Write a sequence for this structure.
């Protein structure tokens, strides 16, 4: 329905678009294996964005869908947070503490208090995201200035993934 509102003659165009059909089928299969709303929303956005002219090529879409499938919700939330921490704070009504210095982990734990005391867990999530080329920094624990703590940490690929799964069609 959303695609019909955005694109003229979408039904006829997509019925013959093999890349879109492949993405929709792959996303549907992944969706049958989760009940998590965050992951389902990411899959929905991926399907919508795959129909748009700016969609990534088929291989990248397939890779992004496999990330959604294998990632936990925390992978998605942390990646979205560090794509633009200031925008995240504004969107979520959670301004960060004004610290003259600290580490990225302070920002992470301020944003998601449930992660406090679970450093081993979020370090593993961080390593997963970094090893897949989605984050620029290999650890959230290095000391830096307050502005450095709130700097974007996603790579170009990480930004594309966040936009593809978040409903922002500028992939």
């Amino acid at each position: 329905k959303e695609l019909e509102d955005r694109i003229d003659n979408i039904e006829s165009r997509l019925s013959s678009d093999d890349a879109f059909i492949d993405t929709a089928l792959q996303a549907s299969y992944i969706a049958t294996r989760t009940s998590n709303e965050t992951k389902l929303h990411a899959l929905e956005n991926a399907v919508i964005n795959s129909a748009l002219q700016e969609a990534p090529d088929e291989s990248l879409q397939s890779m992004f869908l496999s990330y959604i499938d294998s990632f936990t919700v925390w992978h998605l939330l942390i990646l979205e947070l560090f794509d633009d921490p200031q925008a995240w704070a504004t969107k979520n009504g959670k301004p960060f503490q004004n610290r003259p210095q600290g580490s990225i982990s302070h920002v992470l734990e301020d944003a998601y208090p449930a992660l406090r005391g679970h450093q081993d867990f979020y370090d593993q999530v961080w390593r997963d995201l970094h090893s897949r080329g989605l984050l620029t920094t290999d650890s959230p624990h290095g000391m830096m200035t307050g502005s450095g703590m709130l700097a974007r940490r996603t790579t170009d690929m990480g930004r594309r993934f966040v936009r593809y799964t978040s409903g922002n069609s500028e992939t």
Remarks:
- The chain is about 65% helix and 0% strand.
